[in-house]
Design goal:
Chain A: It comes from Pseudooceanicola antarcticus. The complex is a heterodimer. Chain A contains 19 helices and 18 strands. Chain A is α+β, with helices and mostly antiparallel strands. Chain A has five domains: 8-101, 2-Layer Sandwich (Uridine Diphospho-n-acetylenolpyruvylglucosamine Reductase, domain 2); 108-225, Uridine Diphospho-n-acetylenolpyruvylglucosamine Reductase, domain 3; 230-336, Alpha-Beta Plaits (2-Layer Sandwich); 343-433, Alpha-Beta Plaits, CATH 3.30.70.2740; 439-477, no CATH class. The chains are: A alpha+beta, B alpha+beta.
Amino acid sequence: MQMPEPDASVLARKPAVVAALRKVLPAGAVIDDPAETRAYECDALTAYRCPPLCAVLPASTEEVAAVLKICHRMGVPVVPRGAGTSLAGGALPTADSVILGVARMTQVLETDYANRFIRVQTGRTNLSVSGAVEAEGFFYAPDPSSQLACAIAGNIAMNSGGAHCLKYGVTTNNLLGVTMVTMEGEVVELGGAHLDAAGLDLMGLVCGSEGQLGVVTEATLRILAKPEGARPVLIGYDSLEVAGQCVSDIIEAGVLPVAIEFMDRPCIRATDAFSGAGYPDCEALLIVEVEGSEAEIAEQLEIITGIARKHDPVELRESGSAEESARIWLGRKSAFGAMGQINDYICLDGTIPVSSLPEVLRRMGDLSRDFGLDVANVFHAGDGNMHPLILFNANQEGQLALAEGLGAEILKLCVEVGGCLTGEHGVGIEKRDLMEHQYRPADLEAQMRVKDVFDPQWLLNPAKVFPLSVSAARREGGLAPHVA
Amino acid sequence: MMRPGTEAELAEILRSARAPLAVRGGGTRGVAPAGAVLETGGLSGVKLYEPGALTLVVGAGTPLAEVEALLAEKGQRLAFEPMDHRVLLGGEGEPTIGGVVAANVSGPRRVQVGACRDHLLGVRFVDGSGEVISNGGRVMKNVTGYDLVKLMAGSWGTLGVLSEVSLKVLARPQAEATLVRRGQGAAEAVADLCRAMGTPYDVSGAAWLEEGAELRLRVEGLAGSVAYRAQALGAALGGGLELVEGAESAALWREVRDVAPFAGTAGAVWRISVKPTEAPGLLEALAPHKAGAMLDWSGGLVWLLATGGAQAIRAEVDKLGGHATLVRGAGDATVPMFHPRPAPIARLEEGLRKRFDPRGILNPGLMEGA
């Protein structure tokens, strides 16, 4: 993965940039010691690293605005950073960039149960948003696997999803308003505690824009009343096709489970060995979870198990207690840890139409054989969001490149069947160079025009999302070629 | 009038256009910008429908009625419950799915499942220069590049003319029931509606009609579940609510969806977005101009029938941080349809319009406003 050459004139001005930032931030909020900036040299895509020019940790919207005004005036690129859990390299710095971290901005600013929202500073972690409202019986729905660590800022930047979005939607569906600072340092309010936009849906545009349109410092989030209860059922099949058909039939039957998780045999074996969940050794395992009162759960599970039985499962395990429920989820929840134990892996998140599931799994198997690398699958089947884990040995020369090559082929396959490159992790640098497989030049041009409006000099997180060759004129010239 | 039959024809029309165009689906939403009419009805037809994947891809000019009939055959529907503006505005046109998307039209169920924009998975459109642009797709989770899908929803044809839309559809539930209580004023009713939304009973409609002082709460789902939740919800609100089921319940919500209480009335109709608990105070503050009111979204959507007072209405709403759209004017052309935005936001919107429609030919002036 290429990154652009750092701007030598910016590198040369480092002392002046740091001094200017120190003037507007409290002591300790500007980090330029090379030993300390190393903490910001990468995110969760650890294969790529680069120390930034410096890192700043503002504590308020005003401080963020002050930082951006300086960087704008001095022509210094800025890379916003939430908790640094991006799997796509969304927070990877360049040597000439200032990392703007929101880690010190963790306050709850307002909770309003009657109107069902919470307003927080965006450095707050996803899980602690739910934590702030759970005593009153509420929760914040989007639940990415990294929810213990990941920040709302990053959730908004990447429009994060999670296991339960089949019912509750992803970040953009649960975001009501944002306070955003533009690259010029101007503070704008988009949306709010009310619904819908007065004009164009700029908040919808900002959500998922990977920190390239502005820095979101505060967010108004929809909170929901917790369901009375939830219960999973475990269903095993000896055929990927049949399991895929079962998913489709459940959805078509009109029950809307909160989650339908899918694991294939390599994943089942690895997680079972790791966690002792007691999973059957079969081709495909589904975990389907429903919510409601006891009677409602029973009513939904009756329909679901009825459909599952028609497809002749090798295993159908209903949960009779909280312990049994936890056991059903145990393996799934430890899947990534289990894989990490036995191998290095790359985790992709291409999305496909649910109907293409069997075809994609079959062809992915072929690719896996062609490349000589194992692929384990664990994913959100209800919404087609795959999570192929490509297993490789990072200590062996050439294996990372080989794994990346296989990853690219799998993502192209997702696009070919009518899906997309990324369902919830974002493009970052990881999928940047594949964008031309999903979008035609005019489609990418239209997206870059949006950045031209919000950030005409292309200073915010400039080397992400768009292939470097496609964005070169803008990043180097500062303005779109056709815009005077 | 121009009526392209294909996306390529649409692109050619826009490339060669030399004067403003009034983009129109079914022409039922009450806007008539100046310019030659460009009608999208020719861009119709189902491209793909996969009930098992909850996905529908259709030409933007496809009549809404056709879409709804197709989905009903498979026991599915557009969950965001788009309003039929003809009830309120009169008119003869046939609403199109592209019109629904362009205006981001959402009904009572928005409070539970989200707006039209939340169900829009992908768009194809032609921008003001005649360039065909595609964004999003047909899958439910997609964060590949910028979300122009959200930008196009509710952009009223000012950034481009939709040629194709891809939507998430949902199952039509087995049963529905509505709890009704009469005689509560707005303040009391909104308190109850908000309480209901804070229960785990998955309320899918929460409205109050000034006429008859009638509170309505809807639950939908499997039959057993609906019976349970209706009972539990009634109990949580202190009992004494009347239970209306099935088709009768559905009729109550068509009325709310289409703002039927204001049909055939005289006066301006405003659609106001505020925090739910602020709705009662707003109605009080606007009493001198108010000729009727209906609250949806547990109070978050105020439908106001008004005689004059446009300045006062927008000023009151500004105090609350919401916005007010003039859905049915009363002959005063000086009142803009959309709520004026603060200068920095208006500048961003203007910047987007300039880049997507550099010659300013798409519904010019319709959404301007700072």
